[in-house]
Write a structure and sequence with these properties.
Elements lengths: L2 H30 L2 H8 L6 H10 L6 H14 L14 H36 L4 H15 L2 H11 L28 H8 L2 H37 L3 H8 L4 H14 L3 H5 L1 H16 L4 H10 L3 H29 L7
Length: about 350
C-alpha cells in the first residue's frame, strides 16, 4: 500500500471515531444535566409556565433526542456552536472559545517543542551511556516525572507561593498588574506582542509562564526520555551497530546516524500523542495558575454544567487527538514502510 492510500485510510477511520466521541459526550451531558435544569438556570425567578415552555422550545429541547443529536453533529461540523447557556449567557460559543484557544495552543506548543527536544536529546545521551552516573541520575528524575502527574506538580508549585524567600517566579496569573495588554490580533498573547512590538509585555508574559510550562515539560519530558532511552539500549545491541563499530565509525556517528533513526520508530506514537496530553493537561494547570485559556473555560463550563460550551471544547480536543494520532501514523509509515502493509 503506497503512502497516499495509507493516509486516506487513516483519515476515513478517524470519522467514525469522532462520531463515537460526539455520541458518548452528548449522552453523558444529557444524563449529567437534564434539560429542565438548564432552563431553570437561565430563567429569572420567578417565572411562568409560558416563559418556561418558550425557553424550552428556544433551546430545541422539545425535539426528539435523535433529532437533537443529528442537529448537534451538524452544528459541530459546520462551526455553528450556538450560544453559551450559563457561563457567558447568550454569547457565541465560537467567539468565546476562539478568544481563549490561541493562548492555550501557544503555551502547549512551547511545552511540546521543549519537552520533545530535551527528551530526544537526553534519551540518546543516556541510552548510549547506560549505567554511568548521569544515566542513573536521569533515571531517578524520569521515574519521579512519570509518577507525579502535572496537576500534583501544579499544587506543589502553588503551595511554594506561600514562602516568600523561595519565590523566584510568579505562581499565579499571566501578567503583572498594570502591565497592560497588547492589541488583540490573533488572541495569542505571544504573537500579538511580537506583531505589535510590545517587548516589555512579552517578557512579563514569558516570565509568568515559566512555572506552569515547567510543570508540563517535566511530565512529558520524562515519558519521551524513558522511551527513547529504552529504544536506544535495544538498538545499540543489534548486529549492524557492532558492524558499524567494526568498520571504524565513530561513536557519535553510530548513535546519531544509525541508532537514533531506528530507535525513533517505536517512540513516534509517544511523541505524537504528547501534544494532546499537554493540551488536555492545561485544563488543570490553567485553573491552578489562573491562566485564561480554554482549560480554564472548560472548568467553568463544567462547573456550571453549561454543555453548550462543554461539547465544542470536547469536539476540539477530539480533533487535536485525531490529528496528532494521524501525524504519528504517517511519520511512522515514512520511517518504517512495513507498517503500510498491515
Amino acid at each position: 500500500m503506497n503512502l497516499p492510500k495509507y493516509a486516506l485510510r487513516r483519515i476515513l477511520i478517524s470519522f467514525p471515531i469522532l462520531l463515537g466521541v460526539l455520541a458518548i459526550t452528548f449522552a453523558l451531558m444529557k444524563l449529567a444535566c437534564p434539560d429542565d435544569v438548564i432552563v431553570y438556570q437561565r430563567l429569572p425567578m420567578p417565572f411562568t409556565q409560558e416563559q418556561f415552555d418558550r425557553e424550552y422550545s428556544l433551546l430545541g429541547f422539545d425535539k426528539p433526542i435523535i433529532i437533537q443529536f443529528l442537529v448537534f453533529v451538524k452544528l459541530m461540523f459546520t462551526g455553528d456552536w450556538g450560544t453559551s447557556m450559563i457561563v457567558v449567557m447568550d454569547s457565541s460559543c465560537k467567539d468565546i472559545i476562539f478568544q481563549r484557544l490561541p493562548r492555550t495552543l501557544e503555551i502547549a506548543i512551547i511545552s511540546y517543542i521543549i519537552s520533545t527536544y530535551l527528551g530526544l536529546k537526553l534519551g540518546v545521551i543516556t541510552g548510549s551511556n547506560r549505567g554511568n552516573r548521569p544515566d542513573k541520575l536521569t533515571r531517578i528524575i524520569t521515574y519521579l516525572g512519570i509518577s507525579v502527574p502535572p496537576f500534583v506538580l501544579a499544587i506543589f508549585f502553588s503551595q511554594m507561593a506561600a514562602f516568600e524567600d523561595i519565590r523566584l517566579f510568579p505562581f499565579f496569573g499571566y501578567k503583572t498588574p498594570g502591565i497592560g495588554t497588547p492589541t488583540a490580533i490573533t488572541n495569542a498573547r505571544i504573537i500579538d506582542c511580537i506583531l505589535t512590538g510590545n517587548w516589555v509585555i512579552l517578557g512579563d508574559y514569558l516570565y509568568h509562564l515559566i512555572v506552569p510550562v515547567s510543570a508540563m515539560i517535566i511530565f512529558q519530558l520524562s515519558i519521551i526520555l524513558r522511551q527513547i532511552r529504552s529504544s536506544m539500549i535495544d538498538v545499540l545491541q543489534s548486529d549492524y551497530i557492532r558492524t558499524a563499530y567494526a568498520k571504524g565509525c565513530k561513536e557519535k556517528t553510530v548513535n546519531n546516524k544509525h541508532a537514533f533513526k531506528n530507535a525513533l520508530g517505536p517512540s513516534i506514537s509517544v511523541i505524537g500523542m504528547g501534544f494532546p496530553k499537554i493540551f488536555a493537561g492545561f485544563i488543570v494547570l490553567e485553573v491552578a495558575f489562573d491562566l485564561p485559556g480554554i482549560g480554564q473555560l472548560f472548568y467553568l463550563a463544567f462547573k456550571s454544567l453549561d454543555y453548550a460550551l462543554i461539547l465544542p471544547i470536547i469536539f476540539i480536543c477530539a480533533i487535536v487527538v485525531l490529528i496528532f494520532n494521524f501525524l504519528a501514523d504517517i511519520t511512522y509509515a515514512i520511517i518504517d514502510p512495513r507498517v503500510r502493509l498491515t
